[in-house]
Design a protein that fits this description.
Radius of gyration: 21 Å
Number of strands: 14
CATH topology of the largest domain: Aspartate Aminotransferase, domain 2
Structural class: alpha/beta
Bound molecules: pyridoxal-5'-phosphate
Number of helices: 9
Strand order of the largest sheet: 2-10-9-8-5-3-4
Length: 361
């Protein structure tokens, strides 16, 4: 086998090695079926067990009650930007959003396209989204309040979620889903594109509080209704079987190997601390997110100039560390350190950063 890199990609991103190995080992003959899981019918017992186990593990890991449906919906997180206002707006009630970056901006745009009464409650656009807004007033007459828990591109994250009273929170958790425990009760809906922390790309996991289904209008297309997915256990049509299978194995890894989300959070905090502490001690590297808004998942930083940044990224790859280039909209560097990127990857990166600084600083 060729050497695997330390993978700092933002998404699709690193998956746990034991999960990849399990997929490989079972690929040609899944549990004695004589076929791979992606060749089996989604109506078969084999696949039924996979999706049900994925749902059960999600509920256990997050401590969700039976008042939540766990759904898999094709189209990634971006389709959710459109489905949320389409399904979950209460007639004549505005929809509220907090704008903390590129992904929130896209979510807002999809609600505006549909002619919803969109209010942007708070925004950090004034300072190029480098912080998480703090002082804002929540409206009690909103259909919902939407926010993005982790801003993958700018490297900011909500340490504590906004409080919205009786208004259900809706959260895009694409890039920090399953990285820490949280209380799901204030949420009407939570969604995450699978490819950051729980699986391959192309689908989103959606946690929907069941009472939200009452809002789904009749006159929207079948495949765009949450009720379609809820009524058919995400199998109204052929689901993305491979995404769901991989997600199931990642959730099993989280439960059985890591030991749950509390432990995962402890590890994630430790990893991020090593990297931020190093950046803070250095005069050569400069973190780009406000200190109190820093993400534990995406660490964004700059070097003294763009030429050095380019060489840093290229030379890091030669040393076996991939994916360190910042998002094309922002430049700079970014180390995405999701659940599957272990402490040994962080240590290797910090060692390389120190060596590069010594040579070039
Ligand atoms: C990556 C990402 C998305 C987009 O996900 P797709 O599955 O590509 O649509 C949306 N929101 C956040 C926070 C992301 O990190």
């Amino acid at each position: 086998m060729g050497k695997r890199i330390y993978n700092f990609n933002a998404g699709p991103a690193a998956l746990p090695l034991p999960v990849l190995e399990e997929i490989r080992d079972n690929f040609l003959d899944y549990k004695g079926s004589g076929m791979s899981i992606i060749e089996a019918s989604h109506r078969s017992k084999w696949f039924d067990d996979v999706i049900n186990d994925a749902v059960d593990r999600t509920k256990r890991l997050l401590g969700l009650g039976d008042n939540f449906d766990v759904l898999f919906i094709q189209g990634g997180a971006s389709l959710q930007f459109c489905m949320i206002p389409m399904n979950l707006t209460i007639e004549d009630k505005p929809v509220d959003y907090i704008n903390t970056g590129t992904w929130s901006t896209k979510a807002i745009k999809e609600a505006q396209i549909q002619g919803k009464d969109v209010r942007v409650l708070a925004s950090s656009e004034d300072k190029d989204f480098y912080y998480i807004p703090k002082d804002f007033q929540v409206n009690e007459d909103a259909s919902y309040l939407h926010f993005t828990s982790n801003n993958t591109i700018k490297g900011t994250q909500w340490a504590k979620f906004p409080e919205s009273g009786d208004v259900p929170l809706i959260c895009d958790m694409s890039s920090d889903f399953m990285s820490r425990p949280f209380d799901a009760n204030p949420f009407g809906m939570i969604y995450a594109g699978a490819q950051k922390n729980i699986g391959p790309s192309g689908s989103a996991m959606v946690l929907l509080r069941k009472d939200m289904l009452d809002r789904v209008p009749d006159n929207i297309p079948t495949m765009l209704k949450y009720s379609t997915f809820a009524e058919k256990n995400s199998m109204f049509n052929t689901p993305s079987c491979f995404v769901i299978y991989t997600t199931q194995l990642v959730l099993k890894w989280l439960e059985e190997t890591i030991g749950g989300l509390k432990e995962m959070e402890r590890m994630n905090k430790e990893k991020a601390k090593v990297l931020y502490d190093f950046i803070d001690r250095s005069d050569f590297y400069r973190g780009t997110a406000a200190n109190d808004s820093r993400s534990l998942m995406n660490v964004t930083f700059r070097l003294p100039d763009e030429d050095l940044e380019k060489r840093f990224v290229d030379e890091a790859l030669k040393e076996g560390m991939g994916g360190l280039k910042g998002h094309r909209s922002l430049g700079g560097c970014r180390a995405s350190i999701y659940n599957a990127t272990g402490m040994e990857a962080i240590k290797a990166l910090v060692e390389f950063m120190a060596e590069f600084e010594k040579r070039e600083g």
